[in-house]
Amino acid sequence: MSLPRKKIAGVILAAGSxxxxxxxxxxxxxxxxxxxxxxxxxxxxxxxxxxxxxxGHKADEIRQTLDLSxxxxxxxxxxxxxxxxxxIKGLENVSSLCDAAMFLLGDQPLVSAAIINQLINAFETSDxxxxxxxxxxxxxxxxxIARLLFHRLKSLSADVGARALFDEFKKSILKVQIPxxxxxxxxxxxxxxxxxxxKKSDSMECDLPEFNV
Length: 213
Description:
Order of helices and strands: EEEHEHEHEHEEEHHEH
Low-confidence stretches: 201-213
Helix content: 25-40%
CATH topology: Spore Coat Polysaccharide Biosynthesis Protein SpsA, Chain A
Mean pLDDT: 88
Number of domains: 1
CATH superfamily: Spore Coat Polysaccharide Biosynthesis Protein SpsA, Chain A
């Protein structure tokens, strides 16, 4: 008899003001939508059980540009205090049905539904509490963190995200090889954005080393 499939919530972190960009990057065009809109579309096309979007800076303006069907919008009024505040807001709204949360960045539109599903499959077929994607020996996003570590995530402070847990629980991490540097590509500056737009249709495969669990 097969075990029931694990349920994973997708928490999209998109509350920041993008100070390095100089513009509201959540609103910047990408394909037929926006950077954030593409992240949401990719999440919707995956096996995620639910999708939670954490907004902050210009939240009202941003939400008017998005297809928010089958998602839950959370407003983080303290986004200026760092990414951990958005992470915690998202966690607080993960349903009790979910076994874990996947944290997706609102400026990584190349992370496809297939990549999301590959990470979900890795979580479902392992018993480790943390799943991290790697490409070319570099750590990327999104990551999956099991419910048993939610209490530790909620104790985070400042702009540290989940990184603080990785050293503490390094023996409990599964490093998943992803042959696509989409997991490394985010948009922090206008230069990043221009490179993304010019290369979005290019193949982004990379050679991967072997990793030990």
